[in-house]
Amino acid sequence: MKRRTALQGFAAGGALLLAGCLGGGDDEPRRTLKATGIDYTDDENGNLVVIVTVANTASERRNATMYVPVSVNGTSQQRVAEVSVDGGSAEEYRVTFDVNRSAFAKDGQINEPQFTY
Asked: How far apart are alpha carbons 97 and 42 in whole angstroms?
C-alpha cells in the first residue's frame, strides 16, 4: 500500500513539474525576428549609418525593439529602433550613430543586434 501511495505522489509531482516547464506558451512572445544582414554607410554629415535587414519567420506581423551595438576605438555605443515586420518578409532599418564613418572603417565593429519583444 505504501508503494502505491508513493507512486501516486511521484506521478502527481511529475505532472506538476511538466506543467511548469510546458506552460505559458501563448503568453510568451514568439521570437521570430532575426538580423539576416548587416551593412554600413554614412549620412550627409559623414556619420556612421548601420543598415540591418530584419527577417520575420512567422506567418503574422511581429514587433520588437532592436538594439544595435557598435564599438569604435574601444568605445561602445548602442542605438535602439522599433521594428515591425510582416510575416514571411524582411525589412531594412537604418540606425545612425554619432561616429565618423571613416574612424569606424579603421577600427570599428558592429555587434549582433538583439531584440526584445
From this structure: 9
pLDDT tens track for 46-73: 999 999 999 999 999 999 999 999 999 9
Contact 52, 93 (CB under 8 A): yes
Q: Are 63 and 83 in contact (CB under 8 A)?
A: yes
Residue 87's φ and ψ, nearest 5 degrees, are -60, 140
- 57 φ, ψ (degrees, to nearest 5): -90, -5
Domains and CATH numbers, the chain: 33-116 (2.60.40.10)
DSSP string, 1-47: -HHHHHHHHHHHHHHHHHHHHH--TTTSPP--EEEEEEEEEE-TTSE
Per-block mean pLDDT, blocks of 10 residues, the chain (117 long) = 47 51 57 98 98 98 98 97 99 98 97 97
| Predicted TM-score of the model (pTM) | 0.76
